[in-house]
Amino acid sequence: MAQMSKPARRRRFPFHLVVFLAPATIVYTLFMIYPLLDSMRLSFFAADSAGNEFFVGLQNYITLFTDELWQPRLWGAFKHNVIFFLIHMIVQNSIGLLLAALLTSRTVRGVGFFRTVYFMPTMLSVVIVGFIWQLILSPLWGIAKGILGLVGLQHLFQPWLGLEGPALIALSLISVWQFIGIPMMLFYATLISIPDELIEAATVDGAGGWQIFWRIKFPLILPTVGIVAILTYVGNFNAFDLIYTTQGALAGPNFSTDIMGTFFYRTFFGQQLQLGNPTMGATVATVMFLIILIGVLLYMFFYQRRVQTYEL
Question: Hey, CA dihedral for 24, 25, 29, 33, is it positive or negative?
Fold first, then answer.
């Protein structure tokens, strides 16, 4: 008789993984998941003059999107946030990719020095950066006008942070200057991982530097391009510190630098003599979460799938 095969032993549950994951999971749940869920719960309630909460369903959302007082501030903050994001997406990530390409070039010397210099502003506090640039751009004692005067361009100087049009663009470029090191380092790490054999083979075939970059290197770093894009999106729609430091909670002048983060802060905690509205603040926070969630889902289901198909 043929010997009967023994039934396969069931693998034991890896309890050691629970031991390692439990602390981080508990901390993340207490400080991230629970506040998020509680904020979403609070957005379906309102409070009376005595502070007692009562269920109102979707009324807070209807008020936010239709009320003549709330609607302009919501769409204004959203529009400014989109501009803030697009400037980072176009300027920051493009320059970061350019710097990464230059740092991986064999003709550049002192790569370690330049890499450190470009990344150094990222390690500074946003509050410090905002305060320093507020001093630099000040029309009274700032040095920006003097620097422009050295090259004969002093007539171009304006109090950019005090004008409704240029203020948001100026703050966006300040943020770009601070965080440009992040996409640069991500692109740099990906570019140096490309095998030298591919570059050498293309060079032997007569390809120039521009052709090598766009036809060989760039297709290989497309996954990193997507990661940088979604990190930029999430970070920009969570932005708050720089605007608050330089322009205050009112995001002046005349709300021209107001973004979703400052709009949420002003709604939840109040401003000057106006008391905050926690339930409407929770509604704004939930809308911010949904905006970010939609962007992440679009990235996962469209861009990431397309890149994986392209790699196959």
Answer: positive
**Cα(238)–Cα(146) distance, integer angstroms:** 35
Q: Say if residue 122 is exposed, middle or buried (CB neighbours under 10 Å; 0-12, 13-18, 19+).
A: middle
Q: In Å, what is the CA distance from 215 to each residue of 43, 111, 165, 198, 208? A: 49, 24, 39, 11, 10
Structural domains present in the chain: 55-311 (1.10.3720.10)
Q: Is the pTM of this model over 0.85?
A: yes
DSSP three-state, residue 136:
helix
Q: What is the pLDDT of residues 73-120, one digit of tens each?
A: 999 999 999 999 999 999 999 999 999 998 888 777 888 888 889 999
Q: Read off the pLDDT of residues 192-239 as tens digits, 9 standing for 90 and up.
A: 998 888 888 888 888 787 888 888 899 899 999 999 999 999 999 999
Measured from the Cβ of residue 222, the count of other Cβ atoms closer than 10 Å reads: 16
What's the alpha-carbon Rg for the chain, to the nearest Å? 25
Q: What is the CB neighbour count within 10 angstroms for residue 269?
A: 14
Cβ atoms of 70 and 63 within 8 Å: the answer is: yes
Tokens standing for residue 166: 């240029």
Contact 259, 186 (CB under 8 A): no
Q: Is the distance from CB of 43 to CB of 57 less than 8 angstroms? A: no
The letter for the amino acid at 254 is: N
Helix (H) or strand (E) holding 47: strand 45-47
Q: Are 296 and 230 in contact (CB under 8 A)?
A: yes
Element (H, E) at 275: strand 274-275
Q: And the tokens for 241?
A: 């510190």
**Residue 97 to residue 99: CA distance in whole angstroms:** 6
The structure tokens listed for 258 are 């107001």
User: Whole-angstrom Cα distance, residue 130 to residue 136?
Assistant: 10
User: For residue 253, is the peptide bond before it cis, meaning its omega torsion is within 30 degrees of 0?
Assistant: yes
Q: Tokens 């901390």, residue?
A: 27
